[in-house]
């Protein structure tokens, strides 16, 4: 078989790159371990099933507010198996759609392990097929890490690959890690009735540089309000099995009993066993594949996208890098990786969305920064929807008004942020954002108002 | 009293213009009939209370879907008075916030009827105050119209000013008019348990040029599925009171009994009694105030905004025109009225959003048109949320790829559309829209996909 492009890994990045390569006229082949793993982590063990479960938690929130809309419900029972079933149906439907579509456009998926033999040859173990190719895209993804004595066994210690098999609502769960996955499951399990203890090593939840402290703290307060027991600057010192589950000793001196421990402490790139180093693809010290702004590795015709390239493991970053790689294979040098335009969204008790720089980051880059904040508390549409919590925060360059970053907490933040993604990509300033006609009432108005706060000077009557 | 600007009417347009004028340093006074009417129709008898009720209907939709998320509810009762109470609380809170905020920034509101005595003098009847001013902005809004023998009495025939006083769920309601208000209340009453008959004179619901036929039809099908009895090309020929309500004879030969008739056939501008014509402000044949692209009337220092200027009666159009007027008073000629950038959003069984041109309109303007459509049926986020119905439709110029219009039906269409409002305003093309990094999974991805359908050529696997 001879093609233009072999993509190793049909997860979000590989799949999207495959479709894009097809659109651009490249003869392309996808190589994926098995028919069950098409769609990768995001689809099968990540964003898609977790968003489904998160929507269930959101529905319970809605349920509790219904009386204000004259709807007086008579209580509800929880059937976790039905939740799981609904969730798995969505995952399977999307996966089968993927495969059907690939077939329709004659984008072959070969099942097996793709191993690079030389820069122009991929051998698929399992299918026992040798493919000659002009280009290779490595999109092999990542897998959960364990820490110390917390070794996942799927029962007492459950990692983010294993959580999907749990088929009951735990009475009590101990979540280790206050990042995106940790706060998401804290919200899900809490709303479905669990007692939740969330421990985080660092001093706040969502402890990453590109999410401002305010966003993390605002979410943290809400989770606490909902009854999540958040312990920051805390670790699990030891744990043991008990007849009912586990007992853990925390670094704050307390003991926590739980049905199981959910380990959500991060992921590492999957880069071994694909023959990459053997042909000269270099890794950095942390095991990520070194890529340039076009997602090109140290071997010029081999590219990489997604979780293998950096710790910011987001499906859409993978999809984007995959397309940039394809564009570059075809000679395009106009489209480059650009960290400023990556939306980062967390779905927990609120949606927490960020794009571009935080104030701290902007100051580190020597900007004089202006910030405009608008609360959803008084936003009419948010009030109509009973979701008037959170805020829109815009960070701009004082000199030019250029929008450097935007950080939204609250209703539909994950969709709203895209307005600013477009603007940051296009280097728009706050005057532009303030002069758009926003529908009234809408949540989007808060974006215009935050921009106006900067452009015209602050007058806001924010209740924070 | 001597000021720079008197604004007659503190509805959406007047209020927003007042804040903007304050931001721009003008000494400004708002004149409004009474403390109870601050906020105008939108706040008191329009978009705000109706969006609240619409959210209740949406909650009932959500309630019914909960079992798929493992939430098994035990039924509910309806308490319409609580709905009304919650709704009125939101309206009053926003109104009081408005007033408090105006006070905080020293933007006076004088209560009474503002009458223009000469282009530089407004006399406020009631307050008996004469104000000398450089500029006047007329923002007096609109009121419902009646048709033929359907004369609103608040009981048998209820107009859109009176519907807010109804304090029970009608067993059966006859809605006259299939425009924005008609389809909104059809959905609300249907979900709260009413039988609903919706009659529309024209051949489809949402019968306006700037909403494409596909959007109206898609919504119509959904309403019918929910049990709304839609009768297009139909009118009420006669009606009479009965012991239980009303009985109406329709032009299709049938008779409909109902608790009351909701009349939602449109609004007319409120332009009489303000001394406008006396000082030379000209009206068009339909009674709208003639304005130029800067919202300036035929008297150079008198401007008008909102419902008095055109039949497209949208709060945000009023707000926008008000700001353009203020900008022009201060010498700005860069900011003009532009119909292409007005988002139009209807909240019914779906959100139906439009901006810019439909295909028909684009063809009328001699564009060669390309259209990209992406269904929400297979959108992963929409599937996770159980709202995978509807579509994103982008209309572009074949020659340049410029985005001419966008029409979204489905989840959060009313927020999503703003991404394209920004783009259309900035004359962006489909290449721009297709190269943004959209979060995965998100509804917003459907915008990028529709743009890609045009830019790269169609490959979509849309289930329509």
Layout of SSEs?
The structure is a homodimer of 464-residue chains.
Chain A: E1 2-8, H1 12-23, E2 28-32, H2 40-45, H3 47-65, E3 71-73, E4 76-78, H4 80-104, E5 109-111, E6 113-118, E7 121-125, E8 129-138, E9 142-144, E10 157-159, E11 172-176, H5 180-191, E12 195-200, H6 213-225, E13 229-232, E14 236-242, E15 245-250, E16 255-258, E17 260-263, E18 267-269, E19 302-304, H7 315-329, E20 344-347, E21 351-356, H8 359-364, E22 369-375, H9 380-384, E23 391-397, E24 403-410, H10 413-425, H11 430-435, H12 445-455
Parallel strand pairs in A: 1-2, 1-8, 2-5, 8-19, 10-17, 11-12, 11-17, 12-13
Antiparallel strand pairs in A: 6-7, 7-8, 9-18, 14-15, 15-16, 20-21, 21-24, 22-23, 23-24
Helix pairs in contact in A: 1-7, 3-4, 3-5
- Unreliable spans of chain A are none
Please state the CA-atom Rg of chain A, rounded to the nearest Å: 23 Å
The CATH topology of the largest domain in chain A? FAD/NAD(P)-binding domain
Alpha carbon gap, first and last residue of chain A = 62 Å
Principal-axes shape call of chain A: globular
In total, how many domains does the architecture of chain A comprise? 3
Largest interface: A-B, 99 and 99 residues
How many strands appear in the DSSP assignment of chain A?
Answer: 24
Number of helices of chain A: 12
Q: From the structure provided, what is the oligomeric state, counting identical versus distinct chains?
A: homodimer
How would a textbook summarize the main sheet of chain A? 7 strands, mixed
Do you know the CATH architecture of the largest domain in chain A? 3-Layer(bba) Sandwich
Give the CATH superfamily of the largest domain in chain A: FAD/NAD(P)-binding domain
- The secondary structure category of chain A is alpha/beta
**How much strand content do the residues of chain A show?**
25-35%
Mean pLDDT of chain A: 97
Helix content of chain A: 25-40%
